[in-house]
TrEMBL record:
HAMAP family referenced in this protein's UniProt entry, alphabetically: DapA (MF_00418)
Organism: Nocardioides euryhalodurans
Pathway where this protein functions: Amino-acid biosynthesis; L-lysine biosynthesis via DAP pathway; (S)-tetrahydrodipicolinate from L-aspartate: step 3/4
Record-marked site positions (Part of a proton relay during catalysis): 53, 116
Cited PROSITE patterns: DHDPS_1, DHDPS_2
Top-rank EC class of the record's enzyme: lyase
Residues annotated as catalytic: 142 (proton donor/acceptor), 170 (schiff-base intermediate with substrate)
Protein name (database record): 4-hydroxy-tetrahydrodipicolinate synthase
Keywords tagged on the record: Amino-acid biosynthesis, Cytoplasm, Diaminopimelate biosynthesis, Lyase, Lysine biosynthesis, Schiff base
Length: 300
């Protein structure tokens, strides 16, 4: 099958929502956080998302967020795009974080639907508008109703598409048909669910914002390259190979930062898997299952 034209990629094709490393006392470990960013860029990534859900942004302060961004920018800036998570459920706070990230020289902003408050769609659009207009930095909206309690409506997407800086969507809804409509509105669509990556490519997505990419960045980049080159069989074979890793990293109740850090520890990138409460690190049984999943995918 011949290759289709590759979709435009405003932030790169292979990104991971990277974990934030902590010391045993709970303070941010900037050295190991920078090491995570370098590991990702050395292993197939052309972008990283900092201070998203996997970065435990709900538990980090604004000062810590700035320090984390500086450390990552210094480690990989110029080699990969750096996208800063600025989503909160308080619009003025998100505006403040967006302006802070702009001053620190990021390449993009990740803006999640306001969580917990469950605003109306008019409220969601107002939030997006206020934050997007606060800076000149390109924005990727993030739709993850399983965590926020609110799904972005197509009408809200239509309204946000009129904002000059809103260029992309990280979608974790699994609604492929709606994704095609987002493409028609001019958005670059990124898969936000590792299990759905291949399906999103088939529906026109430009790339991934992954969690499993902590362990398999090169493989995911190759999967996208194969699919876009028209080698759909090769892409499917690679997807099958990675399924044990997707399952192991995404199927525990407290997946995300916990599984990402445990995988990085198993790979020797960091020397611990500390997380901040209310998250708890994977126990030894969970780590063993993760090790088996990585091994089944040929990553260990």
């Amino acid at each position: 099958m011949s290759a289709a034209p590759a979709p435009e990629v405003p932030f790169g094709r292979m990104l991971t929502a990277m974990a934030t490393a902590f010391h045993a006392d709970g303070s941010v470990d900037l050295e190991q956080t920078a090491a995570i960013a370098s590991h990702l860029v050395d292993h197939g990534h052309d972008g990283v998302v900092v201070s998203g859900t996997t970065g435990e942004s709900a538990t980090t302060s604004d000062v810590e967020n700035a320090d984390i961004l500086r450390a990552v920018r210094d480690a990989v800036g110029g080699r990969a795009s750096v996208v800063a998570g600025v989503g909160t459920n308080a619009t003025p706070h998100s505006v403040e974080l967006a302006r802070q990230a702009e001053k620190l020289g990021v390449d993009g902003l990740l803006l999640v639907t306001p969580y917990y408050s469950k605003p109306s769609q008019a409220g969601v659009l107002h939030h997006f508008t206020e934050v997007a207009r606060a800076t000149e930095v390109p924005v990727m909206l993030y739709d993850v109703p399983g965590r926020t309690g609110t799904t972005i409506s197509l009408a809200t997407y239509e309204g946000a598409a009129a904002l000059d800086t809103v260029v992309a969507v990280k979608d974790a809804t699994g609604d492929f048909a709606r994704g095609v409509r987002l493409l028609d509105l001019g958005y670059a669509v990124y898969s936000g669910d590792d299990h759905a990556h291949l399906g999103w490519l088939a529906h026109g997505a430009c790339g991934f914002v992954s969690v499993a990419g902590h362990a398999c960045g090169r493989e995911l980049a190759s999967l996208a390259e194969s699919f876009l080159a028209g080698d759909h069989t090769g892409a499917l074979d690679l997807y099958r190979r990675l399924l044990p890793t997707f399952d192991a990293m995404m199927s525990v109740p407290n997946y995300g930062a916990t599984t990402a850090k445990a995988a990085l520890e198993l790979l020797g990138v960091i020397d611990n898997r500390h997380v901040r409460s209310p998250l708890l690190p994977l126990d030894e049984t969970e780590v063993a299952a993760l090790r088996d999943g990585l091994a089944a995918s040929g990553l260990l």
